Amino acid sequence: MREAIKMVVFDMAGTTVNEDNIVYKTLQQVINHIGGYQLTLTEVLEHGAGKEKLQAIKTVLKNCLNIVDDQLAEQMFQSFLQALENAYEAADIYPNSNANELFAILKDMNILRVLNTGYDRKTAESLLKKLNWVVGQDIDALITASDVPKNRPYPDMIDLARANFAITDPKGVVKIGDSIIDIKEGQNAGCALSIGITTGAHHADQLKSANPDYVIDDLLEIVPIIEKYNIPSQLV
User: Fold this and answer.
1) Which CATH homologous superfamily contains domain 7-19+93-235?
2) Do the beta carbons of residue 117 and residue 139 sit within 8 Å?
3) What is Dmax (Cα atoms) for the chain?
4) Mean pLDDT over residues 14-43, rounded?
5) Which helix (H) or strand (E) holds 58?
6) What own/partner pairs with CB < 8 Å and gap ≥ 24 does 18-21 have?
7) Of 157, 153, 145, 179, which Cα lies nearest the Cα of 49?
8) What processes does the entry annotate via GO biological process terms (predicted)?
9) Average pLDDT of the segment spanning 116-131
10) What percent of the chain has pLDDT over 90?
């Protein structure tokens, strides 16, 4: 009998949170300012989206500029953390379209709602505060890059979420995110479904290159997908 879906793990920025790409615009500005480069936002999104942010900087430097320099990357990362904190304090941050509605529907379906992110915990919790999202109320858990040894595309964050709720079978989990690395994370974790959404970093063709189970344009499209997936287990 197929395991029913018990948990949906959502990425934050670009998936459930609308912050107008502030994080990657800030990353672009810091890299260009410190290094004297002229990287575009498209390049930063292509190579850095979804990753833990120090790793994102290293990947952008290597793939876009053929630079491998851990000291430079660390300098940029520390500058980025302060710049992002300042940017978030001034910015308007909103739930992504239909995020609140979907969270309520999943609660009614007795499906856990977990956010995971390439942000560190301090940054992620500051976002939750701006959104007025409360763990245990609006969502069931928050798992961040600073909570685990290895970050996306490794499955550590999803594995930790499952462990926290005693979900032994990853086939009871759906992962959704707006970047290729989100999809790979879900696949590496053995999730029942790994879903891409076009509301953030990567467009549909980029997402499809990672062979997701679905690519959607709106969060509410998840509901019929889960209902359809769960039908066989209900009939057995």
Assistant:
1) HAD superfamily/HAD-like (3.40.50.1000)
2) no
3) 62
4) 92
5) helix 53-65
6) 18/93, 18/94, 18/95, 18/96, 18/97, 18/199, 19/88, 19/91, 19/93, 19/94, 19/127, 20/91, 21/45, 21/200, 21/201
7) 179
8) DNA repair
9) 90
10) 79
3-state SS assignment for residue 152: coil
3-state SS, residue 34: helix
Task: Characterize 35-47 residue by residue with b for buried, 16 or more Cβ atoms within 10 angstroms of its Cβ, and e for exposed.
Answer: beeebeeebbbbb
Collect all residues with Cβ–Cβ distance below 8 Å to 108 and sequence separation of at least 6.
none
Which of 80-94, 144-158, 166-180, 181-195 shows the lowest mean pLDDT across its residues? 80-94
Q: How confident is the model at residue 236 (pLDDT cuts 50, 70, 90)?
A: very low
Sign of CA dihedral 50, 56, 61, 66: negative
16 alpha-carbon distance from chain centroid: 8
Residue 21 has which token pair? 């790409």
